[in-house]
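User: Hello! I'm new to structural biology and keep hearing that structure can be predicted from sequence alone. Could you demonstrate with Activator of Hsp90 ATPase AHSA1-like N-terminal domain-containing protein? Please show me the input and the output so I can see what each looks like.

Assistant: Of course. The first part below is the input, the amino acid sequence of Activator of Hsp90 ATPase AHSA1-like N-terminal domain-containing protein. The second part is the output, the predicted structure written as tokens.
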Amino acid sequence: MVVQNPNNWHWVDKNCIDWARAYFVEKLGSISAEDVESKINVKITTVKSLKGDCEVCQRKGKVISLFDMALEANYESSSGHKGVITVPEIMYDTEPDEYQFNLDDRVDEPTRVLIRSKIVPQIREVLKDFGPTLINVHGSDIQVSESQVMSTFTKGNQNLTYMKPVVKEKTTFNKGESETKEKKSSPLPEYAQKYNISSLHLSSEFNTSAEQLYITLLDPQRVSLWTRSPPGGIEPKVGAEFKLFGGGVEGKILRLVKNKEIEMLWRLSSWKEGHYVKILFKLNQGQNETSMDVDMNGVPIGEEELVEGNFKDKYFRAIKLTFGFGAVL
């Protein structure tokens, strides 16, 4: 597939439904199980059908998978029964433990128990690996190579696509007001991978100093003013966990560079439990004003406009109106 897409900036997609069928034929065809006590064994014989849509897509260097399919697999039991296992919905944002498996009504009880206890877990593992494998196999087909990409933004997204999730060791956070040394930003945690994700960059100018803006984002009294709600645990301490806007937003402070940077985990309460966006606030002091650059990594695909709109309204606009830190359009 020849791609004409300078810097991997534009939307490109590829239909992968035929590859998906071949994938499930190969992976499911090797699944079998036996019950020692009843001496019954069950094996998947064929993939009866796979219907729906399956694509890999990319924009601004970030490759994602989008699929919504239904699967039927034939099986045979040594009891003499032949039937079908149905997975009615295989979607790109479904957790492995959320998949539903339906069996035909005529199945005998020993076979049903064996399928539920030993066959279904194997199918679940195949489904779990499908999304990452889809991207690894086809992602490079819809992008120009990294060597041809001049944009550091899209190149960074391109690297992140194929980065394995990092399992972080438990650490004891410093309980002081801030860290005096500037540290490199840590990789996106494993628990921020509940959806296909994208990145956002927002920026705004404030008629105040970087010091005052830093305090405004972290001081409990000031936060309660611009959020018009209790501060919910936020404070200028690494490790502080908070809930803002009446619990609509949750997060945790990861890193502080006084008057310069604030790094945090941040999530909407409506998102899947455990999914966070990593946000880095950069405060750049100018001669008469301070620019706030906000880099977000981990925004669920489809939620970008919601997050951007609410952030501009609830953070940028609210802070300016509350403290007179700039004109509001």
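User: So the tokens describe the shape?

Assistant: Right, they're a compact way of writing down the 3D structure. Reading them back into a model, for example: Confidence is low (pLDDT under 50) at residues 1-10, 148-189.
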